[in-house]
Write a structure and sequence with these properties.
The structure holds 2 protein chains of 2 kinds. The N and C termini of chain A lie far apart (about 65 Å). Helices cover about 60% and strands about 10% of the residues of chain A. Chain A has 11 helices and 7 strands. In chain A, helix 5 crosses helix 10 and helix 8 packs parallel to helix 10. Chain B is mainly alpha-helical. Chain B has a 3-stranded antiparallel sheet. The chains are: A mainly alpha, B mainly alpha. Chains A and B meet through helix 11 of A and helix 3 and strand 2 of B.
Chain lengths: ~300, ~120
């Protein structure tokens, strides 16, 4: 009787381990191609069968523990690949896996501010090169961007897009009952509305910007992406939430009795959409640099 | 055609730049990033830009050829210094021997061709 219960327990455990392995495989970074995935999955199975004692196996957080045993899962290769061009305009063909995209959007070592887009057509802004150009960070301040930033500070950064999204929702909630049925949904360059629409036509898009990008950033934390992936997704969420909030405010102002220029708000929004993510990334880099430096100086003292 | 030639030149310089950086750091000297950039910029033949040096330093560090270390500075904030690792020093020595051979042979060849012309 006792024996049979024991073996039943073991099979439950085996099942839980298999489940954890499947879960871990599902969490491999998007950037890996099929061959890399297969190779890594093989190693994972080997690791589980050779190194893990089923009786000791802690089912709680098992997938995370398994992934943590494989540092190479985190360090996807960000090697430079030539970008295909059509008529001189770069056309991104590779899958927009986070590591490569992220390291292009914060690459203080490169002096190119505009980099060919990883996904889609055109160029992306390399905030790192911009920060160096403005004299805010040194190109080699951090060996691995944001690697030394404490987890708590990294997570605290999410407050920025979350608060901006909440502000937008609160503004909409407060003003919705007092709005006219037709709202401006498009403005000409001099700031006068040239197209009108319903409440949702005016506010759905900026709301999707904010909620979507914030959800993506939170998801990156759940997936335990590497620090640069977390930093860049938070920076992007702050960019889109600034845009979302700004567009919402400019529409609200344009129909308010105050008649304050919607155009001023729109330009301020565009400026802020670059400055806010830039300053977020720069501060994070300062923190990372301070911790990297402290670790290096400590290490030396120990050696003495 | 002109673009092709330009590409070839930049390929040539890229390969040599690695040797130049190893050379600056050889024999146990430690330099920080902007010192390396400065010393290379003094040599217009290399025609380097800041944007090529730092990514190269990062690659060399990942490859274990160089190492970095923060050092307190008597004036101003601490700086990150680079130096060769033991394997970096060996790599520099064999690269620089290879470079001497290549240079001698190519110089000889170009001289011969010039004489014939």
């Amino acid at each position: 009787m006792r024996e049979s219960r024991g073996s039943g327990d073991a099979s439950v455990r085996r099942f839980a381990i298999e489940e954890a392995v499947r879960d871990a495989i599902a969490r491999f970074p998007d950037a890996l191609d099929d061959d890399e995935r297969r190779e890594l999955a093989d190693e994972l199975f080997w690791y589980v069968s050779e190194r893990i004692d089923p009786d000791e196996f802690d089912v709680q957080g098992a997938a995370e523990d398994l992934l943590a045993a494989f540092p190479e899962v985190e360090v996807a290769d960000a090697a430079e690949v030539p970008t295909p061009r059509i008529l001189g305009v770069p056309v991104g063909a590779s899958h927009p896996g986070v590591p490569r995209t992220a390291s292009r959007l914060w690459d203080p070592r490169s002096d190119r501010i505009f980099v060919p887009r990883v996904f889609g057509i055109g160029w992306d802004l390399n905030f790192g090169a911009l920060a160096v150009k403005l004299g805010l960070v040194k190109p080699d301040a951090e060996d691995e961007p944001f690697a030394f930033v404490p987890d708590a500070i990294m997570r605290a950064g999410l407050a920025l897009p979350v608060l901006l999204t909440l502000m937008q929702i609160v503004f909409l909630g407060v003003f919705a009952p007092r709005l006219p049925s037709m709202l401006p949904v498009h403005f000409s360059l001099d700031g006068t509305p040239d197209r009108w629409g319903s409440f949702w036509e005016a506010f759905a898009l900026p709301l999707v910007f904010s909620v979507g990008s914030t959800a993506y950033a939170i998801r990156s934390f759940q997936l335990r992406r590497e620090p640069i992936g977390l930093a860049v997704s938070t920076a992007f969420a702050s960019l889109f939430t600034v845009l979302g909030l700004g567009i919402t405010l400019s529409v609200l102002l344009s129909v308010s009795p105050v008649q304050m220029g919607g155009r001023v708000v729109l330009f301020a929004t565009l400026g802020a959409s670059v400055v806010v993510p830039l300053m977020y990334l720069v501060s994070l880099s300062w923190i990372g640099e301070r911790h990297e430096r402290a670790a290096s100086l400590d290490h030396k003292e120990d050696a003495c | 055609m002109a673009e092709k030639l330009e590409q070839g030149l930049s390929q040539l310089r890229k390969g040599v730049l690695e040797l130049a950086v190893l050379g600056l750091l050889s024999g146990g000297s430690a330099l920080y990033g902007s010192q390396i950039v400065e010393r290379l910029e003094h040599r217009p033949g290399l025609s380097i830009s800041v944007g090529t040096v730092y990514p190269l330093l990062s690659r060399l560090k990942k490859a274990g050829v160089i190492d970095s270390e923060w050092v307190e500075s008597p004036t101003g904030p601490p700086r990150k210094y680079y130096r060769l690792t033991a394997s970096g020093q060996r790599q520099f020595e064999s690269l620089s021997r290879a470079w001497t051979d290549v240079r001698t042979d190519v110089d000889d060849l170009l001289e011969e061709v010039a004489h014939h012309a």
